[in-house]
Amino acid sequence: MHEPPDSPLGKLYRQHIGYIKARDVAHLLDQYDRDCLLISTLTDDRRPLFVRGRDQLEAFFRSRIFSLEDMDVELNQWAETKNALMIVEEIKTTGTDGSKGSVEFYDNWFLPQGKIVIHFAGTIRYPDGTYADGTGFPAGKVPAKQEPPDTALGRMYREHISFIKSKNIKGILGQYTEDALVIGTLTPGRKPRYVRGRDELEDFFKGNFMGLASLTSRIDQWAEAENALMIVESVDIVGADGSRSSMSFYDNWVLRGGRIAVHYAGVVRYPDGLYA
User: Fold this and answer.
1) Does 18 have pLDDT greater than 80?
2) Which residues have a Cβ under 8 Å from the Cβ of 102 and sit 6 or more positions away?
């Protein structure tokens, strides 16, 4: 797909892009909750930038959109529910100085009451042509992959991976709220799959994990807040039949009461080597 659908969030997204092009900061801010959190990885060092509340958000947008002369947006993936948007988009820009650039993003919005409360503004392909999972770098320049930090969410993530490896369905279900939503794009045709509630989650995990012989996960990017986790991870899998595959994901969690309420389970690089 290339254009947003004719849907409530499709309309909101069109407005969002229109406000950026028009440098209309006031209307952009009005799309966000007053206590919003935006996490961006489009930074010089690729480390996450945390933007909290409308005052910081205003400064963030003014630092970015006023250097734009024009931008063209092409959508590669789109998934939405009433309170969640999950997309991959390629954006080509022209700066006020005539410079041109091209970036591929994943944008995840969490909008429980119609305003964006959490915005995961992640980068898949950077302007220099390298990717968030470390591919595209010259030999010897590839960023080192990491282990999750020793934090509450770091420990929860470690436990999450251990549940997958041990095929502990009960354990992993306990990390999610009863009404949890998972949106995944590791699917035939790359079309989003929506998984809602514990019963569907149980079927989802059984279908994905029971055929695993082993799994190795390493962190490429990590950002966490009290109620949000935003990561890019590289994963190597060996199937029960001996098959091997390598891929990378962006995994973003919105947490409620310490459990995952919304899980954006998106693919950065598919097993065939192609990107989202």
Assistant:
1) yes
2) 90, 91, 92, 93, 125, 127
